[in-house]
Amino acid sequence: MLNDDRTFDDNERCKVLRETARTTTRWRHKSATGSKLRGCVLPELSAASRHHGYLSLQVELLDPRNEVACSHYREWARLNLSRPDARRHLEIEIHATILALCLERKANSRVRPDIRFSAFFAAHQLDISDELVVLTPADDPGRSQAAGADDHLYRSYVREFDAGWAQASKLRLSPVRWSPLDTRGRLSIHHVRNLFKELGLPGCTFTNEELRSIVERLDIDDDEGDDPRRGVDSA
């Protein structure tokens, strides 16, 4: 099924991404914010790695430190998404994805995220697994397209991703002293702010309300309903 070219809507896209994430050994993602990676893919990759071992995860996002890149996104979003608060939306979404990846890195040694920032905003999103490439227009997520690994489009988009990856700037996650969790294992606004500060990200200047908004986007849950990270402390 995964080797056929096809087009699908946003709901089916998430289903397809989850399906292929369960069997892959490598994932490459490129988008402005990483919100779909955070919501649909990362939980499946985390679960799969516990059965299949080490998993390579490359994530390229728009650089929230680059005002020129962000301004281009703001203008594009204003014209195509009717989003007047695009700049803050962009920053919050990017920081939420980075926080989710930092938490995964801390909790699961089998998934080692590699995050890089792009100085250019691409009008499409890329997700590449061992078996499938999914291409999604940023302004029309209801028209995603996919191609299997034996298709020339797959190889073309792998080359496109690798070329952009080589030019993107690396976010150094190690060594990082600050954990976003407090001594009780709960997400703490204070600790999240300090993590962003150590990473050199603009999120360290966000208000407490904006940081809470970032944490809420993680939608932390577990089967037992007792994940201590569900709590968010202001201190």
List the helices and strands and how they pair.
Blueprint: E1 6-8, H1 10-21, E2 26-30, H2 35-52, E3 55-62, H3 67-80, H4 86-107, E4 111-118, E5 124-128, E6 132-137, E7 144-148, H5 152-167, E8 169-171, E9 187-188, H6 189-198, H7 208-216, E10 232-233
Parallel strand pairs: 2-3, 3-4, 9-10
Antiparallel strand pairs: 1-7, 2-5, 4-8, 5-6, 6-7
Helix pairs in contact: 1-2, 2-4, 4-7
Report on this model:
By secondary structure, this protein is an alpha/beta fold. β2 (26-30), α2 (35-52) and β3 (55-62) form a beta-alpha-beta unit. It has helices spanning 10-21, 35-52, 67-80, 86-107, 152-167, 189-198, 208-216, and strands at residues 6-8, 26-30, 55-62, 111-118, 124-128, 132-137, 144-148, 169-171, 187-188, 232-233. The protein has seven helices and ten strands. An eight-stranded mixed β-sheet has the order 1-7-6-5-2-3-4-8, sandwiched between helices. It has a two-stranded parallel sheet with strand order 9-10. The model is unreliable at 221-235 (pLDDT under 50). 36% of the residues are buried. The termini are far apart.
CATH class of the largest domain: Alpha Beta
Strand tally is: 10
Biggest pleated-sheet summary? 8 strands, mixed
**Contiguous uncertain segments of 5+ residues:** 221-235
Distance between the termini: 49 Å
In percent, how much strand structure appears in the residues? Answer: 15-25%
Radius of gyration: 17 Å
Q: What's the CATH topology name of the largest domain? A: Endonuclease, Chain A
Question: What's the CATH architecture name of the largest domain?
Answer: 2-Layer Sandwich
In helices, the fraction of residues equals 40-55%
Order of helices and strands: EHEHEHHEEEEHEEHHE
Average pLDDT, rounded to a whole number, is 85
CATH superfamily of the largest domain: Endonuclease Chain A
